[in-house]
Specification:
This is DUF4012 domain-containing protein. Keywords: Membrane, Transmembrane, Transmembrane helix. InterPro entries: DUF4012 (IPR025101). By secondary structure, the protein is of the alpha+beta class. It is built from 15 helices and 18 strands. It has three domains: about 190 residues; about 200 residues, Aminopeptidase, CATH 3.40.630; about 160 residues, Immunoglobulin-like, CATH 2.60.40. The strands form four sheets. A six-stranded mixed β-sheet has the order 14-15-11-8-17-18, covered by helices on one side. A five-stranded mixed β-sheet has the order 3-2-1-4-7, sandwiched between helices. It has a five-stranded antiparallel β-sheet with strand order 9-10-16-12-13, with no helix packed on it. It is globular.
């Protein structure tokens, strides 16, 4: 027979359970309310950070100070509404733990940013105008960087702890209205950290780079993406530039024809380099940048240059015509040596295609490229146009790995660190990096007509080792009847029929990785591999007739323990776009 009366002890237990349920319910309601307030504050803080950034770039200190005041208010509100004992407990609970921890971490990071890292910048805000960092009349004052270096270092140091905590935060599991403001704030915080770190290091090294302590010489290599190479294209035109006390001048210009191939390598080559790239990487300036690790390619280019010209440069800077197109947005049109006008819309076409059509012989091409390069240099160093737009164009090109820098001085080179302009392809840690790089085989200029896309997907993760699928799609837009194109565009026989591209595709595994299979247009091909450091390199050569396409797929694994989201590096082509992108880990 069932009882219908509860004992006192049962009443007590039920009362306790009801009380706990009510307290937990009220707690969750209260935290949900606080979370809403915090996310609203994060959204408003994001808006003010955009205002602050724009004001700093334009030099509007009054607006910048007002935006920082508002940003501080919203950051403090977000922090106050997402911290405390209850939030700590919530961060360790199932279901709501990820959301609580994300909001709390982002809010704390934002509070540190506005209260500790940004104030030192405001003290030198008047010196941060883009106009101050633009070359005028071939001069940029090195002391500008010296004067702001302490403030930048203070800001960067205060921000370093934020980067570690915010960078490790996984926001993939967030849902609902929380996701957007949290992810936006995370991206902004990480972007600020990168900018502060880069700016602090740049302010330390730029006075030396600009020749504050004596003249420095640099080799500027202009790569032609129409004859593709792993880092962009063959370095066909070069400038020898000097920086002395902030004054920048051209000492000499030339073409690869002025640097004839050497009888032997200008610097010792490793067995791996010889097997993978051949001897010409150390003897022929045009092939000096076959190694996708830019510091090594720049070192070889400088050695070949020194052997030919007797000048040991202090650094090598690489740029391409797409970089020029970005700069022209800020400088305005530039008149080339033949009277044609270069604009952002036509610069790539003129320099990578029409010039070869208009000047079929090599001597005329070289004269056009050298004089045009000098004209571009003169406009840039004169400070023509809007400095903010010019700097943005330069930053865009650098972000696409179209502007690469190497210093012979080990201290300066170390300061570049992992900045994208360093062009490093270093051994991996827990982040797997895949490289897919293209190189022309025919000494043609047909890659003006090449479209390429590479993607990486992580299919599975076994024992902390990712299974990766790499796909490169190539398409030729060479006219079906290429007979109207000059030999300088079509390339030399007997490599292929006129108008047919022959493209070498090299796919580099992550450090410690392996290669499974390689297919071209669905058919498995014999596996040809080489070794580069701690990476395996799968190699295949693809022929593309006019209008043809090709699909190259490589299966590979990452190294043991490389469980983080990965990184894909590719060759910059003629079209704008990133050549350094992330791919999602399956671990």
């Amino acid at each position: 027979m069932l009882r219908d009366v509860l004992t006192p002890s049962e009443w007590t237990r039920r009362g306790v359970l009801i009380t706990v349920a009510v307290v937990l319910g009220l707690t969750f309601v209260w935290m949900a309310f606080q979370a809403t307030l915090a996310t609203l504050s994060l959204s408003k803080a994001a808006d003010q950070s955009d205002v602050l950034r724009t004001a700093l770039i334009s030099g509007d200190q009054e607006t910048a100070e007002a935006a920082l005041d508002q940003l501080t208010v919203f950051a403090d509100r977000a922090h106050d509404n997402s911290n405390g004992p209850l939030w700590w407990v919530a961060g360790h609970l199932p279901i709501v733990g990820d959301e609580a921890q994300a909001i709390s971490t982002i809010s704390s990071g934002l509070s540190v940013a506005v209260n500790d890292a940004l104030p030192p910048l405001m003290d030198v805000a008047g010196q941060l105008e883009a106009d101050n960092f633009t070359v005028r009349d071939s001069v940029i004052d090195p002391t500008l960087f010296t004067s702001i270096a302490p403030a930048l270092s203070e800001s960067s140091d205060a921000y370093r702890a934020v980067i570690d905590e915010v960078g490790d935060l996984d926001t993939s599991g967030l849902f609902g209205r929380l996701r957007r403001p949290v992810v936006t704030a995370q991206n902004q915080l990480l972007e600020v950290g990168t900018v502060l770190d880069t700016a602090a290091r740049a302010s330390d090294v730029l006075p030396q780079v600009l020749g504050a302590d004596g003249p420095r010489t640099y080799l500027v290599a202009v790569q032609s993406n129409a004859e593709i190479r792993p880092l962009g294209g063959v370095p066909g035109t070069w400038l020898l530039v000097q920086a002395d006390g902030g004054r920048i001048s051209i000492l000499e210009t030339g073409s690869s024809s002025d640097l004839p191939p050497l009888p032997s390598a200008a610097a010792p080559l490793t067995t791996q380099e010889l097997a993978l790239y051949g001897t010409t990487i150390g003897t022929d300036f045009r092939n000096s940048m076959l190694n996708p690790h830019y510091p090594r390619s720049a070192e070889l280019a400088s050695a070949i240059f020194a052997a030919n010209r007797g000048v040991l440069v202090d650094g090598v800077v690489s740029v391409d015509p797409v970089t020029l197109a970005y700069l022209l947005v800020g400088t305005g049109p530039i008149q080339a040596s033949d009277g044609s006008v270069l604009t952002p819309e036509n610069a790539v076409d003129v320099l990578l295609n029409q010039s070869y059509v208009n000047y079929p012989d090599g001597a005329s091409q070289n004269a056009f490229f050298e004089s045009t390069a000098r004209a571009v240099f003169d406009v840039f160093t004169a400070g023509q146009g809007d400095p903010s737009t010019v700097l943005r164009g330069l930053a865009t090109a650098a972000g696409e790995r179209r502007v690469l820098v190497w210093f012979r001085d080990e201290g300066l080179e170390k300061e570049l660190g992992d900045d994208v302009v360093a062009g490093r392809f270093d051994p991996d840690t827990d982040v797997p990096s895949v490289g897919v790089f293209l190189s022309d085989r025919t000494e043609a200029k047909l890659e003006y007509y090449l479209s390429s896309t590479t993607t990486v997907s992580s299919a599975s993760c076994q024992d902390d080792e990712q299974e990766l699928s790499v796909r490169t799609q190539l398409r030729s837009t060479v006219p079906t009847d290429p007979s109207g194109l000059p030999l300088s565009v079509l390339g030399l026989a007997p490599y292929a029929p006129p108008g047919t591209m022959v493209v070498r595709v090299r796919a580099y595994t992550p450090s410690g990785g392996t290669v499974g299979t390689v297919t071209v247009d669905g058919a498995e091909v014999p596996l040809e591999t080489h070794v580069e450091g701690d990476r395996i390199v799968a190699y295949v050569e693809v022929q593309l007739a006019p209008g043809a396409t090709s699909d190259v797929r490589v299966s590979m694994t990452g190294g043991a323990g490389q469980t983080a989201d990965g990184r894909l590096l590719t060759t910059p082509g003629i079209s704008p776009g990133q050549s350094d992108v992330a791919f999602r880990s399956s671990c």
